[in-house]
Amino acid sequence: MSREALTSAKRIVIKIGSALLTNDGAGLDKQGIANWVDQIAALKQQGVEVILVSSGSVAEGITRLGWKKRPSALHELQAAAAVGQMGLVQCYESNFARHEYLTAQVLLTHADLSNRNRYLNARSAIRTLIDLGVVPIINENDTVITDEIRFGDNDTLGALVANLIEADALIILTDQDGLFTADPRIDKTATLIESARAEDPMIQAMAGDGGALGRGGMITKVRAGRLAARSGACSVIVGGRIENVLTRLYQGESLGTLLVSDQEPMAARKQWIAGHLQTRGEITIDDGAVKALTQGGKSLLPVGAVEVSGHFGRGEVVACVNQVGQIIAKGLSNYSALETQKILKKDSKDIEKILGYMDEPELIHRDNLVLV
Questions:
Q1: Could you say which of 27, 84, 296, 323 is the most buried, measured as most Cβ atoms within 10 Å of its Cβ?
Q2: If you compute the radius of gyration of the chain from its CA atoms, what whole number of angstroms results?
Q3: Are 311 and 344 part of one and the same domain?
Q4: Phi, psi of 190 (to 5 degrees)
Q5: What CATH number is attached to the domain comprising 108?
Q6: In sequence order, what DSSP letters do the residues of 182-249 get, joined into one string?
Q7: Residue-level pLDDT at 137
């Protein structure tokens, strides 16, 4: 698999994880941050647009507050994020200023990217910053989110940002040199996987768990590569402590694990639908509907729906699951949960007789449906 897609990339999202940024919990690794900023500045001088997704606010806050371990209480985590974000941004700002680059802090929540208008506003704002030559520094807004509405990890956020601004590449810097056939900290015979298909289910089986500071592990990085591939971006999982790792990658050196897609990029609207991590409900569909969606590229009709759960309105994202509970697709429902319940297993021509009106003959139109 060629690395030409990376060497020719003009817009790159770079994600740096907590373990790297906080020097494994011992405060911010200021020298490491300075080195990454120097490399990013070198890329920008070559005409590359760089968007930075940075973890580390909670971990830095824990250090600043003098706590010995990550708290479990949500309000304490939110407080740590608020304190730590100050130090994190100050460090980036001062280092980019050495190269005469401006930075901008952008804090996002899942709600910002699940609401269509806010999604478009976020895209417009970040694209404007890029056009102005500013380096956007993006993090999840840990101070206001709850477990129910969070991205879960910044690997996923990095991939969604790559989709959002149609980046050419996503580089995930981690404390491992890449994806190995087994955990190299345990299995000394583990070997580095230099390249793989982002959609290959085999590579997910090789991923490990996260450390004490970060929420994500190698599995989240593999999933992020798959998500980024939906907009055509290639991804690299690579060790952030490798000397000059960013500039060497851009020069075509084979470092880390390259994840590429062999599928056509999704339309922008479908990328937005695919990026919904939380859905408002589920529609269980029969085997015939599963086949129509997965093999025929068809819309979901009421006749193929057998059960509905959750509370959703017209236009909200729901999951389509088969009869054993496996998610097959996500899509925008043309009818509310209550309306859907009334027209389950019914022919489309009967919708108006049952509901008194018919907005659309489909429960979910194929243009608003994404296979997962």
A1: 84
A2: 22
A3: yes
A4: -65, 140
A5: 3.40.1160.10
A6: S-TTT-TT--B--EEETT-HHHHTT-----SS-S--HHHHHHHHHHHHTTT-EEEEEETTSTTHHHHH
A7: 97
CB atoms within 10 A of CB 58: 30
257 and 283 belong to one structural domain: no
Under a CB-based contact definition with an 8 Å cutoff, are residues 136 and 106 in contact?
yes
Give the pLDDT confidence of 191-235 residue by residue, as tens digits. 999 999 988 888 877 775 444 333 347 888 998 998 999 888 999
Burial annotation 24-40 (CB, 10 A radius, 16+ → b, else e): ebeebbeebbebbbbbb
List the structure tokens of 224. Answer: 């992020």
For strands 327-332 and 369-371, give the pairing. Answer: antiparallel
Domain ends where: 211, 237, 271?
Answer: 271
Are 192 and 177 contacting, i.e. CB atoms less than 8 angstroms apart? Answer: yes
Residues 208 and 284 both lie in one domain: no
Residues 154 and 208 in one domain: yes
Between 278 and 54, the more confident residue is 54
Spatial strand order of the sheet with 195-197 comes to: 103-108, 135-140, 49-54, 11-16, 169-174, 234-239, 257-260, 195-197
Tokens of 269: 């609207």
Q: How crowded is the C-beta side of 135, counted as CA atoms within 13 Å?
A: 30
The DSSP secondary-structure symbol of 339 reads H
What residue numbers bound the domain in which 262 lies?
4-271
Q: Answer yes or no: do 265 and 283 share one domain.
A: no
> How much is the pTM?
0.84
Domain boundary among 252, 271, 290: 271
pLDDT, greater one: 136 or 142: 136
* CB-based contact 352:358 (threshold 8 Å): yes
State how far the Cα of 53 lies from the Cα of 151, in Å rounded to an integer: 13
78's CB contacts (< 8 A; 6+ apart) are: 142, 143, 144
Residue 195 makes CB contacts below 8 A (sequence gap 6+) with: 1, 257, 258, 259, 260
Q: Strand pairing partners for 320?
A: 283, 329
- Strands 281-285 and 257-260, sheet pairing: unpaired
Looking at residue 29, its amino acid is D
